[in-house]
Amino acid sequence: MLKGLKNFVMRGDIVTVAVALIIALALSTLIKAFTDFVVNPVITRAQGGRSVGLGWQLGRAGNRSTYLDAGAFLSAVLYFLIFMAVVYFFIVVPYKHIQARRGVVVFKEQGPLKTCPACLSEDLPEAAYKCRHCGTEQPPAAAARTA
């Protein structure tokens, strides 16, 4: 039983995913610090420096629980965009390149799709003979194009 677990954990793709997760968590911390300590102060300063942030007070003045903090939301959106760009350009692109050199295609682009006339699902590959959702026979790809 332990040998099976060891074989599972030591597979190449599991190790790759684990390393990518560790790198992503480290980058997440770095990007969070950037948005908290660089972006948020810039937003606050742009409002004149006396404001608690970019947003609106919905209740009694000075009550943080009724403050609609749009600056924190903007910071979170910026954090997400930066984080996804970093993950894509520093993890996904190099991984695709390395795997392509090994002859393995990962994250391949989806081919042309067609719509099932019976159930109207739109995610069938053009060469499919049967619908994966309702099981109806599909016309051949050449006949579907001419129809």
From TrEMBL:
Domain of life: Bacteria
Membrane topology field: Multi-pass membrane protein
Molecular function GO labels: mechanosensitive monoatomic ion channel activity
Compartments, record wording: Membrane
Keyword set includes Acetylation: no
Main location group: membrane
Protein name stated in the entry: Large conductance mechanosensitive channel
